[in-house]
Amino acid sequence: MDEIKTYPDALTFLFTFQDFSLTHQEQIAPERFELERMFALMARFGNPQQSFPTIHIAGTKGKGSVAALTASALKAAGYKTGLYTSPHLEDFRERIQINGQWIGEDDFVAETRQLRTKLDNLPGITSYELQTALAFLYFSSQQVDCAVVEVGMGGRLDSTNILSPLVSVITNISYDHTAILGNTLAEIAGEKGGIIKAGVPVVSAPQQPEALAKLRQIAREKDVPFTLVGEDITYEPLSQTTEGQDFRLTPQGGESITLRTRLLGRHQIENAAAAFAALKFADYAGLPLDEAAIREGFAVVRWPGRFEILPGRPTVVMDGAHNRHSAKMLAETVHNVFPEREVVLVFGASEDKDIAGMFAELLPVVGDIFLVQANHPRAASPERLAELLGETDHSVTQVSELADLRGLLSHKTSPDPVILVTGSLYLVGTFRGLWASK
Length: 438
Prior knowledge:
The protein has helices at about 5-15, 35-45, 65-75, 105-115, 125-140, 180, 185-190, 210-220, 265-285, 290-300, 325-335, 355-360, 380-390, 405-410, 425-435; strands at about 55-60, 80-85, 95-100, 100, 145-150, 165-170, 200-205, 225-230, 235-240, 245-250, 255-260, 310, 315-320, 345, 370, 395-400, 420. By secondary structure, it is of the alpha/beta class. It has an 8-stranded mixed β-sheet with strand order 4-3-2-5-1-6-7-8, sandwiched between helices. A 6-stranded mixed β-sheet has the order 12-13-17-14-15-16. A hairpin with a 2-residue loop joins β3 and β4. It starts with 6 loop residues before the first helix and ends with a helix.
């Protein structure tokens, strides 16, 4: 393409390369994933990812929340903190932040231009590899004190796995991307656990026995300490409202601490416990921070699209749950937070997800259902969603145009419903923009 002059130019350039996020997983050959290209690319820039300490986070669900909690605490401690996550909700720049501020358009353009100068003889380089490289270049140029880095998919062969972090974190592992990561929890855990490195302690959220056994095995082979939430650090819910929840953490052999977070759901307490343990390891490794900073950081963090309650009426809850396990956690949270309210489900998901499994978890807590198609190449049509939903006593409406959704909701629900938008972060991002524009 021609010279990269603007932010849209930079995005266009990045997406001229293979983007697996737009491809059905069954059509992706696992052998396309490797780390040699990423190592080679970063070496051409002098390995900027080695110029700042990192905390590396993998897992199926919760890794974004753990990353946000961790970064918020580090910021509260006074550190200039980078945060790299994916996907985004509305603007691509959300993926690359420093102290909660998205990368500026001018910086995005400048780093993309820099990347473009050194791509010769790197056949097969992907869009995600370039995105990750851009984040590392930006964090290095801005001289961050540390960066919290979320794995995109898997772990062992993810582009972020060229890091040598202070601590590795693995959040809850469940079935997702099975065509690439494996069909059993042990296989998936083997890929997620690929971020475990010699000399680097590991923190794990609670896991199913099969996944836990595999993670423990990898940690033993690497001879690194393994901290398990629920065993080495226990947690106790205390209270919860729509504004947030209080909970108590107790490290093994240590003193309890009471914390608060705006993130709702019991699973977010597990995520907070994992973040807390990771921060303690980072403290030991040379990023000093006290518990006051952790308390402040956890209390103020927001993570859009994760049981996010929009202001105003009707009550709208947006959650990016996109597999059966996360739908189960979401259903439990909806029941606990809104026990007496009618819940209207707005649902859209990618075709390669366990849509029937998600419906099985959500149907017991919802009433009317609106089936929609997100603005994404992998999104299932309303007709396909209806097929997977099958026979039901629920009122079901297939929505052909997302722009019509608000009007349909106003005519077919009670005066004060809870509108639950879920099934895909892409749907959440699209819905957020449409809702705000009215």
